[in-house]
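Morning run. Coffee first, then this:
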Amino acid sequence: MAKYSFPRALFPSTELIQQWSREGSWSPFLQDLRERATEKISFFAAPDKELERFLKPAGRGDISYCSSVASVFVQYDQGAWVADFESMSFIPSEISYLFDRVLSEPFSIAHYAIATFTRFSVVYIPRGVVVQDRIVVHSEHSSFDYAAHVVVVIAEPESEAHIEYTVSSAHSNFTHFMLGLCGTGASVKTVSHERYGSQVIGLSHEVWYADQRSSLQSLSSCIGGAQVWGKKEYSVEEGASVSHLSLSALEGNEQAVLITSQDHKGRESSSSVNVKSVLCGASQSFYRGTITIEESAKKAEAHQQQRALMLSTQARMCAIPSLEVATHDVRCSHGSAAGRFEKEQLQYLYTRGFDREHGYDLLIEGFFNEGLGSSNFGTRSYRQCTTESESGTHEMVRCLKERSRRSLFHNPA
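And here it is:
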C-alpha cells in the first residue's frame, strides 16, 4: 500500500482524539479497536511535500462530538445482511483479520475514523450467495456535531452483491471509512455518493482486499465540501480484477485531494483507476496515483488515468501519477490531462442549433458519461438492481452536470 501521509493540521489535537476514543458505550471489541487506532495518532509519517505545497488544509478548531450507538439490521437474500454492530447476531471472523492489517499500517484517515467513529456497520454476504437486490447503506448527518462512520464489507467466496453507499453531511465535518474483502471468486459492485455542505471538511478512505479470482467494480461521485480528502487503496491478488471510476465537480473555492493505490500481489491480476473532475471558479484539485507491481505479480495488467475539465482560468489542478514495477512481463500505463473544450467542438454544436449554454451542457454530460458504458455495472444475475443502479448513475451524472453548468454560467470566472 502507498504510505502517503496527510498534514497534521488537518486533524484535531492528539488529546482531543484520545478523549473522543473513550466516549460512548461501545462493546469491548469496538473499544479495543478505538484504543489501538488512537495509539497511532502521535506517529505521523513525513509529510507529503508536493501535496502540502499545492494545498494548505484548513484548521480544524474546536469540534463538538456526540457518540451514539445505532441498532439498524436489514436482512437480504439467503442470509445476507447489513447491520450496525450492536444488532449483529455474530461477528464474522474476517473482521479481526482485516483490522489487524489496517492497524499495522502508518497513520492515515482510516485510523482517525476507527479512533473516533460514531457509527460502525457491517455488510455480510455468505459463501455462494447471490444477492438480487441492492444492499443500501445510508450515512446521513444533519447535526452540527462531528461524525464518523466505519463500514466493513465481507463478501465470502463465490458470492455476488451490489452495494450502494450514500454519505451526506450538511453542517459538520464528517469522516467515513470503508474496509472491504472480496473472497475467492466473489463479485462485488459498489456505487457511492458523497454530498457535503459548503463549510464541511470531508474525509474519506476505502481499503479493499481482492482475493484470488475475485472481481471488484466501484463507482464514486463527490459534490460540495470546503475541503474533501479521499484515499482509495486496492490490494489485488492472483487472477483478481479491480476497476474504479471517480467523478467530481468543484466550484467556488472548494478544494479536493484524492490519492489512489493499486497494489498487485498475484499473477495475472488486473486493475484500472479512472478519475474525472470538472473544475469551476477558483477551485483546486490534487491527485496522486500509484501503481505497484510486486515481484510475484507476473503478467499483471494495471492502468491509471486522470482527466480534468477546466471551466475557469482561476481553477488549479495538480496530478502526480507514478509506477513502481518490480518484475517483468507486465502491462502498465498511466496518464494525466487537464484542459478546456476545443473551440471546434462548440462551433460544431452551434451549427447544429445548440446555443452556448446547451452546448456546454451536452459536452459536460459527455465528459462524465464517457467510461460509464465500459463500467458494466450489472450482469444477468443482477437484473433487478442493475436497472436501479443505472437510474442512480444517471442521476449522479445529472447532478454533477447541473452543478458544473450552474457554476459556469451563474458564477463565471
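Residues 8-340 form one domain. Good start to the day.
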